Amino acid sequence: MSPGSSLERRRRICVFSGSSAGISGAYERAARALGKRLAQGGIDLVYGGAAVGLMGAIADATLAEGGHVTGVIPQALVDKEVAHRGLTELHIVNSMHERKAMMADLSDGFIAMPGGIGTFEELFEVWTWAQLGSHAKPCALLNILGFYDRLLEFLGHVVGQGFLKKVHRDMLIVEEDPAALLHAMAQYKAPAVGKWIGRGER
Questions:
Q1: C-alpha to C-alpha distance for 119 and 126, rounded to whole angstroms
Q2: Which CATH fold would you assign to the domain 12-183?
Q3: How far apart are the first and last CA of the chain?
Q4: HEC-encoded secondary structure of 25-61
Q5: 19-72 pLDDT, tens per residue?
Q6: How many Å apart are CA 139 and CA 174, to the nearest integer?
Q7: Could you give the CA distance from residue 14 to residue 130 in angstroms, rounded to a whole number?
Q8: Are 44 and 38 spatial neighbours (Cβ–Cβ below 8 Å)?
Q9: Which burial class, exposed, middle or buried, applies to 42 when counting CB atoms under 10 A from its CB (0-12, 13-18, 19+)?
């Protein structure tokens, strides 16, 4: 990926989220609130193209506010009839690898909502690329009901054990409110720090 630009020119945010809705209605409400906020702010949504779970909720909310939604989904999931057929654009690709690459290329920032291992994997991949300097796009968590609190605690442990620089941990933006999250992403500037940690360095 090429380095990203500032949010003044950024128009597309990729949202990673669960194909399930979770046990609390707060998750779906947050997905809809984020979709509404994106559309109202003139920011297009890029996501995994499904009609189910939090993925479907954020797409529906964005569309309901007149927003532009681009979905990217593998053929195998289309065959399982989970593709959202009401999107502005739907790209059907051959594999999960192609899906992630296209979503990343189309987007100028990334948000992970609550989800499962697929959501985690998508987030960590784009965050790793940011750490390596492959792009300068913000990576963020919408931390509904403290969903990611234990992950954040573990990341602190990783820093403490010398496997992650604090500056790279701090690249990950965390907010509980969609509006606050988008505002923080608008202020983001990628750190000019190398990845590699020397002995005695943090």
A1: 11
A2: Rossmann fold (3.40.50)
A3: 27
A4: HHHHHHHHHHHHHHHHCCCEEEECCECCHHHHHHHHH
A5: 999 999 999 999 999 999 999 999 999 999 999 999 999 999 999 999 999 999
A6: 9
A7: 15
A8: yes
A9: exposed
Residues 34, 15 contacting (CB under 8 angstroms): yes
3-state secondary structure of 193: coil
Rounded CA-CA distance 200/183 in Å is 35
Q: In the chain, how many H helices and how many E strands?
A: 8, 7
Contact 51, 85 (CB under 8 A): yes
**DSSP H stretches of helix in the chain:** 25-40, 53-64, 75-79, 96-106, 117-131, 149-160, 166-169, 178-186
The pTM of the full predicted model, rounded to 2 decimals, is 0.90
Pairwise CA distance, residues 29 & 199, whole Å: 46
- Name the one residue in this structure whose structure tokens are 């620089």: 165
